[in-house]
Amino acid sequence: MKKNHLFKRVFSLLLCLALLLCAACPVLAEEDGYEFDTTGVDYQKFRGQNVSINVYNWGLYIAEGEDDSMNVCKEFEKLTGIKVNYTNFATNEEMYAKLKSGASKYDVIFPSDYMVGKLIEEGMLAELNFKNIPNYDRYVDDNFKNLEYDPEGKYSVAYTWGTVGILYNAAMVEKEVDSWDILWDMDYAGQILMFNNSRDAFGIALKKLGYSMNTTDKDQLKEAADLLKEQKPLVQAYVMDEIFDKLGAGEAAIAPYYAGDYALIKADNPDIAFAFPKEGTNRFVDAACVPKDCNNQEAAELFINFLNDPAVAYENFETIGYSSPNTGAVELMDEEEKADPVLYPGDEVLERAETFLNLDDETNEYMQQLWIEVLSDDQNVNRWIIPVFVAGAIAASLFINVRRSIKNRRKRYEK
């Protein structure tokens, strides 16, 4: 009897210890072979309640199931029963205009750093309840918390980060590429692509001039605008996503663009190379936020938490190609990915990089006015009119002389 009693006590003690160990370990939910960390979050809370969220993100900015990747939105729907209505925008300004109009309500949006600051300043973002986002504390790198655009860390969760550099076709560009100067090089006239948004374009011009990308000095901004006007005759096109087709197909030789897209373009064209400009560049952060007038904030926060599950963050990294601020995702990367100098540049590059901050309304309006002037400027076109006219006149003269010569020969032949 005593032996049985002792056995029961030992068995009970071992059972309690096992339960305690299980409680201390992450709870994993498996969906189609994926394991998700469900510790501290109730993903089942809205199941069967016909809840949906509207997610507004950049194009090509989430794993959607192609090439055997995870379909992030579908996996979230399976795990939670929450329907995801997913749409895209092309620029921060497009997203801002859509939010400002009030025509559509969104639950999760992905603005870039300076736009996060603008939305905070205008009272357009909800303060996040981080109890619904436990993966934030567990997996988001401390280097991406409480950044300048959200100093108290109340409104945003870093989603991706990266830098801007110079992509070029090594088979078409023989010169060394280590400076923004290459985008103003006459030898590559008609082969240069440029950003089709004011903030990135002005950021490059300002860095080339030795100024801060966040300057509010009107004289410096005017100088940058003049520099962009000088560049315009050399520019084949102002682009965003069109860069994939143009550089990939060898239709252009040089373009500034986001480091995270380098691998995608190089996959289409192995001649594509990448360089960081010595003058310095932009380090950007895109973040997940919840608009103040969202339909369901808690469901939105569950989605943000899901995005920060290591398995999900890693799948997004593999698909998007941009650097991840998620420590769990980084642990899942192989050594080659972790050591990639384009995705994870060293201190020498990052020390010369700046993050865009929200500028005051007056500066934003002035920059936009200057940008419109750049796009509509024809002064530089006029500089080319005289040389083109002279060349045309020479060609016409040659044509006339040749024609006369032929007529004279015919006349001589007729005689």
Any overview of this molecule?
It is a single chain. The model is unreliable at 1-11, 13-25, 380-394 and 402-415 (pLDDT under 50). Helix 6 crosses helix 7 (218-231) and helix 7 packs parallel to helix 15 (361-376). Strands 6, 9, 10, 11 and 12 form a 5-stranded mixed beta sheet that branches. This protein has a 3-stranded parallel beta sheet with strand order 4-3-5. It has helices spanning 2-24, 72-80, 92-101, 113-121, 134-139, 198-209, 218-231, 243-248, 262-268, 297-307, 310-320, 327-332, 335-338, 347-350, 361-376, 379-414; strands at residues 28-31, 34-37, 52-58, 83-89, 108-109, 157-169, 192-195, 235-239, 254-258, 272-275, 281-288, 353-354. The longest helix is centred in the last third of the chain and has 36 residues, at 379-414. Helix 2 links the parallel strand 3 (52-58) and strand 4. It is of the alpha/beta class and 415 residues long.
Spell out the key features of this protein.
415 residues; alpha/beta; 5-stranded mixed β-sheet; 3-stranded parallel β-sheet; 44% helix; disordered N terminus
